[in-house]
Design goal:
The protein is of the alpha/beta class and 249 residues long. It is built from 12 helices and 8 strands. It has an 8-stranded parallel beta barrel with strand order 1-2-3-4-5-6-7-8, surrounded by 4 helices. Bound molecules: 1,3-dihydroxyacetonephosphate.
């Protein structure tokens, strides 16, 4: 039985001091032993966020990481900078990074491999545009993203990975995918993982849905057989996130 993982992606929101305040506000609201709870926050807030959640059920993740160990890469964050402060999760290949910061399936793969090398769990993002959905190529496109992201990743590593399916047209639009649409693609991702590896790996990997998840839509989405939680943007910055984490109560 896969444990649900529900993550907030704060994107470029909240200063370090606002981060401490919001985490303290959310702490009592996000206790749920059935769920791994995670907040991915801007890099500048990672250290204080880690200190703020010490002793709670909350994990802290990064929103990005570079695929080199160190060196002349101005502005980038190295994997050992994350592990040094205890960060164990990182979002890789969010559609906003692909769109605005020129990330490709190939750089996503390099980052995924580097994260595993350092014992950091990657949350690997994939998702189609509205045009791709309307043209009926969603599953083909997602399969390509997954196959390249997991190139040279071992089955043992893949078992611990998290994949976030986030249709781009549903991000920040208030237009949540229907439960059937989300389940269909998450199932296709699991089948793709089974093809690349085996049934045991497909059974172990956790697949999230993301895109306008709210307290109202979470219970039905997370009840689907292939949806193991969510990657939540806007609603993770509000007390409502407590209701999303406690979707099963
Ligand atoms: P919203 O929940 O704001 O649509 O954002 C989803 C997302 O991009 C999470 O990574």
């Amino acid at each position: 039985m896969r444990k649900k993982i529900i993550a907030g992606n704060w994107k470029m929101n909240k200063t370090p001091s606002e981060t401490v305040a919001l985490l303290n506000e959310l702490k009592p609201l996000v206790a749920n032993d059935d769920v791994d709870v995670l907040f991915c926050v801007p890099a500048i807030s990672l250290t204080t966020a880690m200190e703020t959640v010490k002793g709670t059920n909350i994990n802290i993740g990064a929103e990005n990481m570079y695929f080199e160990e160190s060196g002349a890469y101005t502005g980038e964050i190295a994997p050992n900078m994350l592990t040094d402060i205890g960060v164990k999760y990182v979002i890789i290949g969010h559609s906003e990074r692909r769109e605005y910061f020129a990330e490709t399936d190939e750089t996503v793969n390099k980052k995924v491999l580097k994260a595993f090398e350092h014992g950091i769990t990657p949350i690997i993002c994939c998702g189609e545009t509205l045009t791709q959905r309307e043209q009926g190529v969603t599953i083909d496109f997602i399969r390509q993203q997954i196959k390249i992201a997991l190139l040279n990743v071992t089955a043992e590593q893949a078992k611990t990975a998290v994949i976030a399916y986030e249709p781009i047209w549903a991000i920040g639009t208030g237009k949540v995918a229907t439960t059937e649409q989300a389940q269909e693609v998450c199932k296709a991702i699991r089948e793709c993982v089974a093809e690349i590896y085996d049934a045991a790996t497909a059974d172990a990997i956790r697949i999230q849905y993301g895109g306008s998840v709210s307290a109202a839509s979470a219970p039905e989405l997370f009840a689907q057989p292939d949806i193991d939680g969510g990657l939540v943007g806007g609603a993770s910055l509000k007390a409502d996130f407590g209701k999303i984490v406690n979707y099963n109560k």
